[in-house]
Amino acid sequence: MKSDVKTFTSDLVSSLVVFLVALPLCMGIAIASGMPPALGLATGVIGGIIVGTLSGSPLQVSGPAAGLAVIVFEAVREFGPANIGTILLFAGAIQLLAGRFKLGQWFRAISPAVVYGMLAGIGILIMAGQFHAMIDDKPRASGIGNIAAIPQAIYKAVFPLEGMAHHLAAGIGVLTLVSILLWNKFRPKAMKVIPGSLIGVVAGTAAVAALHLDIKHVEIPANLWSVFVFPTQESLHRLLEPRALITMFTIALIASAETLLSTAAIDRMHSGPRADYDKELAAKGVGNMLCGLIGALPMTGVIVRSSANVQAGAKTRRSAILHGIWLLALVLAFPGVLRLIPMASLAGILVFTGFKLINLEHLAKLKHYGFMPVFIYAATVIGIVAVDLLTGVAIGFGLTIVQILWNATRFHVDVIHNPSRNRADIELKGLATFLRLPKLAQALDGIPASSTIHIHIQELYHIDHTCLDLLKASAEQRECQGGLIEVHWEELVHRYHLHHGVRARLDEAA
């Protein structure tokens, strides 16, 4: 009994911590996505109560994620807010089917270079766009446009035009950022569970209230139902457009990848039951279908909220469910409290969130694997920032496929001749497949028939049956001509798992 009470108490405390982390992020990410803040809160509620109940990762917390803000913003601009829900509804159905068909592990197979590049590119776009929102200015239509206009935004904040309040909003945005940074660096250990984003919002809101500043505030309707947008026949027809289909599959892919990467990270943070990836993916599918039905934001498993949940001592899924209940209670009972929050403060939080997404530690990890992963990372970032998210991710995937094909066909044959001993050494490196058979044949044909050839396979990763047949035939032919091919046939058999029929033939050749 005492154990149950202790567990409930831990979950209750954790749920309050996660609620405080999620509150500003739900609204801020909605604003960055070009959607009403109330719809971000609706996604948080569904992610907590519904998905928390169905989740395959009990300690993971779901909600709107910064990683999807850019693609939703672009979709809102292209298709309009009324059609986003339908796209999300079918993206969720894809996730649900993928989970039911046990495809959860496959979504985790996306190249880290593409994932890290995607997050960094999104971080840059969020920072650039929200920099303008932080001074109560309108973000530009493109990432490059937002970046190019930053000097102009700074000028507006320092030298505001008559009747404009850019400098006031900028001051609140800077106050929010400074509050977050100082709190994260100097907060007392006893208060470590209180998130910096909450401190930033409180500081910004208190300053606006105390100084009676006339700047933009969050708009939350008295009736949450009024902001819901339900699918229509027209939106179903628009779903047949190629761009809409691409957006649907992209949301499903990115949301699934981000969810399962977060799931894997959370699994490493606690010693409780391990996650069921397929169940987690299916739960997110259900959640996104519900969000699509009301026109809310897409959701993923969110590492910031989930890690806060674990660190605050959560024991069961009850913590995630309760955090959704607190969000719902606040929206229904105290919407006036949310209307006190200045938009500049939420934008400041998102500037900080975008900066955190540009994690240079990811780049340092990729450097250990050579030039190509770093190149894929950089190309993905540039594509996202210069064009759009879909293009950047497509570039990353395309380069990953090129790398796979290159690795699958890379093969080196180094020949060292020693005429005085009538010997030649051949070092095989890489993958010996039928695509590179002419190269191997040319090397063998260039050595006198009476020579002894020593073939070294220490750096040979794979060999197919065509190249093995060539080696066997060459060995038999040279033996008749007074020469010899020496190679560790048994090692080839053991290392490359050859079929029994091939093994028998190799034994005869040896």
Structure characterization notes:
There is one protein chain. This protein is α/β, with parallel strands linked by helices and 510 residues long. It folds into 2 domains: 2-362, no CATH class; 410-509, STAS domain (Transcription Regulator spoIIAA, 2-Layer Sandwich). It has helices spanning 2-32, 37-54, 69-79, 81-100, 104-107, 112-133, 143-148, 150-158, 166-186, 196-211, 233-238, 242-267, 277-294, 303-311, 318-333, 335-338, 343-357, 360-367, 371-386, 389-409, 437-445, 465-480, 489-496, 500-509, and strands at residues 62-64, 299-301, 411-418, 423-432, 452-463, 484-486. The strands form 2 sheets. It has a 4-stranded mixed sheet. β3 (411-418) and β4 form a beta hairpin. α6 (112-133) packs parallel to α19, α12 (242-267) crosses α13 (277-294) and α22 runs parallel beside α24 (500-509). The longest helix has 31 residues, at 2-32. Mean pLDDT is 87; it is low at 498-504.
> How are helices and strands ordered from N to C?
HHEHHHHHHHHHHHEHHHHHHHEEHEHEHH
- Average pLDDT number: 87
What's the count of strands?
A: 6
Counting DSSP H or I runs of 4 or more residues, the number of helices is 24
Q: Uncertain runs with pLDDT below 50, 5 residues or more?
A: 498-504
Supply Rg: 29 Å
Biggest sheet: strand arrangement: 3-4-5-6
Q: Between the first and last Cα atoms, what is the distance in angstroms? A: 72 Å
Sheet having the most strands: 4 strands, mixed
Estimated helix fraction: 55-70%
Structural class: alpha/beta
The percent range for strand residues is 5-15%
Instruction: Specify the overall morphology.
Output: elongated
